Amino acid sequence: MPTVENLMLPTNRLAVIGCGNLNRSDDGIGVVVAQRLKQWLNDAPCDGVAVFDAGTGGMDVMFQARGATSLIIVDACVSGSQPGSIFKLPGHELTNRPEPGYSLHDFRWDHALYTGQKIFGDAFPRDVTVYLVEAASVSLGVQLSPVVSTAVDQVVNCIKEHIGQMMRVPRQDSFAAETTQAESVSPSEGPRIQIRRGNLYLEASVYKKYLAGLESVILLRQQDKLLILPVRHAAAGGLLLKVRNPQGDRVVHAREFLRDQGLDEQEEWTLRVQWNSRSAALVAEWPSSR
User: Fold this and answer.
1) Comparing C-alpha atoms, which of 282, 8, 232 is closest to residue 120?
2) Which of 113, 183, 195, 248 gives 20 to 30 Å between its CA and that of 107?
3) pTM across the whole model
4) Is 4-174 CATH 1.10.10.60?
5) CA 19/CA 258 separation, integer angstroms
6) CB atoms within 10 A of CB 111
7) pLDDT (tens digit, 9 = 90+) per residue, 243-287?
8) Which residues make up the CATH 2.40.330 domain(s) of the chain?
């Protein structure tokens, strides 16, 4: 059985994330930059550098950036400036707290910067740079305008230069020095959770050891793993950890999440969980249908 250590989320010195919509002309600049950089890295791999195409998904930005030391985001903007203008800004100037709501469609990368720092703390990059390129057109279309296409070349070259400089500097970030190991327990021992009737149940001992004082969590499926992510600031949202009884057992109402993942509400599972300090999450094997 693989250990939790082998299933940790990737940790990179640098994550580059391109955002935008390829079907909206110049709005796709971030995606095009990401594609160009991926092709370049395929030909000349750089250890510790990851490039992602997040499209228009702000939630994807939050989880792809997690674990990186530094983050670069590339996107289009419409500010009334000269088309093709390039703006390089520190991420903290663009961080934006999301409005309360139920739709992830409105959750953008600026919201991801705010929420990721609140949820993941030190596991989320603080060194954030944002490249914004003024669009000439964001109407339906799959081609970049000539002036924006030229700006793509400039942004790609700037990021390549940054990566080149980074690779010449010895790695000194905390992730390189830290050795994270899963808790040493036999398969028949250790803390457990239960899933039944659309709910996730945690015993008081599990809550007190790993989630004490917290009011909510985020549930995430990553391949064949279930991650239970602590939410350390109530404003960041998540699913409530409700008190079940005087003993302090907790329940998370997760029917919608479990249904979306194809789990039958009539089935029940008891899962062993382990704490992964690198991922800052409780991790369990994803339940399989009987």
Assistant:
1) 232
2) 195
3) 0.59
4) no
5) 28
6) 20
7) 999 888 999 999 888 888 888 888 899 999 998 876 678 899 998
8) 192-285
